[in-house]
Design brief:
By secondary structure, the protein is an alpha+beta fold. It has helices at residues 19-28, 87-98, 151-162, 171-182, and strands at residues 7-16, 33-39, 48-53, 62-66, 75-83, 104-110, 114-120, 126-132, 135-136, 143-144, 169-170. A hairpin with an 8-residue loop joins strand 3 and strand 4 (62-66). The relative contact order is 0.18.
Length: 185
């Protein structure tokens, strides 16, 4: 039986050919703003990722990763589902995924601002299910997450691991700052 995660589609990550053209279009035509940008080298890759949002509540609603094959239409890298559940629910999801034969590429990860489980569905589409942490952390960031730890241990480890980052701070303060920047609060 699946855990009670109450999922909400949170963002999409798209592979693109021309990241600057895509950023220009989404910002100029649709009204998004770049919230973070950086090389995926920190995550073991030579691509770049650009995060965009038009909401103070969401660090990113869409992200673009460079590296799509020339002439190839953009592809969705993964769909991300925000959960209102708990770390225990994320653990239960991990157990279900590990017992499901057609699920592959299961990776528990933390980005500092989220505790996530990444996996591929039966057709190879990327899925992320995540819980928000109490902190904002500039992206991209990623560390393996040991969901075998207790809830408080995960919280403390996350704070210790990302607490030295220049933009590390309470998520409520980040959202208030974004609302002020967007003129929505």
């Amino acid at each position: 039986m699946p855990p009670n995660l109450a999922l909400e589609l949170a963002h999409a990550v798209v592979l693109v050919n021309d990241v600057d053209a895509m950023v220009d279009f989404y910002c100029r035509v649709l009204g998004f703003e770049v919230t973070d940008r950086g090389p995926l080298a920190r995550l073991g890759d030579d691509q770049e990722i650009v995060f965009l949002s038009m909401s103070a509540e969401h660090h990113h609603q869409i992200a673009f990763i460079t590296g799509a094959d020339a002439g190839q239409a953009g592809r969705v890298n993964h769909l991300a589902f925000r959960s209102s559940g708990s770390v225990a629910d994320l653990r239960a999801l991990l157990s279900v995924l590990e017992a499901t034969e057609e699920v592959t590429a299961i990776r528990p990860v933390t980005h500092g601002n989220a505790w996530s489980v990444y996996f591929s569905d039966p057709e190879g589409n990327g899925i992320e299910v995540f819980l928000d942490t109490p902190w904002h952390v500039a992206q991209p960031q990623a560390h393996s997450l040991d969901l075998g730890r207790g809830d408080e241990e995960i919280r403390q480890w996350t704070e210790e691991t990302f607490g030295h980052e220049p933009e590390f701070g309470p998520m409520d303060e980040y959202r208030a700052r974004r609302r002020a920047e967007l003129g929505t609060g």
